[in-house]
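User: Molybdate-binding protein ModA. Structure?
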Amino acid sequence: MKKLSLLLVSVMLFGLLAGCAAPTATQTPTTAPVATSAPTEAPTAEPTAISAPVTLNIMAAASLTEAFNEIAPVFEAAHPGVTLVFNFAGSQQLAQQLTSAAPADVFASANDKQMGVAVDGGRIDKDTPVPFVQNALVVIVPADNPAGITTLADLAKSGIKLDLAAKEVPVGQYALDFLTKADKDATLGNDYSAKVLANVVSYEENVKAVLTKVSLGEADAGIVYSTDAATLPDKVKQIEISDDLNVIANYPIAVVKDSANAELAQAFVDYILSADGQQVLQKYGFLPVK
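Assistant: Predicted structure:
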């Protein structure tokens, strides 16, 4: 009995102590929960900006004038701070300028020969040039056609005043190649080229000079690229050269080896080779590379 009383007292004392103890606090997280944010959309592509204004010097065959001038504002808009400065001339003149250390970033030639001159002169890496368009030849006469030239055979008639580019100019050499092929055409005769060349009154430094003289009536006929003839539809008429006699002009383009802005120069070349660049070139009558 005494043991039972002692046990009851012990139980009551334990319960009293438990009731007086401080309640255990709920532990608060030490780090606030991170809210899950909605995924952000990828930023819209912006034009490629540069840290300082850059001028890209583009040396290009005269026949590329209209097409490259249309491409320029599009490229500049995509590269804020970049200004394209063109030097349009006969490819042989441009190659000479390059070998004379003229500053340039890109060279676009109207034939492989003059690109080769730039390569041999150390300004273009031999593995860099890439063809980007082709072109074809056409005979042009003034809009009023005072000499009455309507066929290729008429170019061999005595008294005709013919204007050609010099043989050093790509279009001039292409014209000579056409005449060589024409000598093998039975309908024109094996002395055709000799008779035609006897009618040449002037040799020009670039294709635009030939186009200008014929359009002004200073010559009865000339041989130019079809792309150039198309720029003056109201001032010259065209006489087609058949495919079997025509000579296809190949145009290569390359970044100049010592360009101070090689990355942007390559970007210009890449644009010329792109679908958008090719679309502009074909708009002006250039042919895609085959």
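Confidence is low (pLDDT under 50) at residues 1-45. The CA atoms of residues 79 and 259 lie 17 Å apart.
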